[in-house]
Amino acid sequence: VAGENFDQSPLRRTFKSKVLAHYPQNIEWNPFDQDAVNMLCMPKGLSFRTQADNRDPQLHSFIITREDGSRTYGFVLTFFEEVTSKQICTAMQTLYQMHNAEQYGSVCASSSCSMDSLASSIDEADATSLAKLQRYNSYDIGRDTLYVSKCICLITPLPFMQACKKFLIQLYKAVTSQQPPPLPLESYIHNILYEVPLPPPGRSLKFYGVYEPIICQRPGPNELPLSDYPLREVFELLGLENLVQVFTCVLLEMQILLYSQ
Question: Signal sequence span per UniProt (predicted)?
Answer without folding.
Answer: none
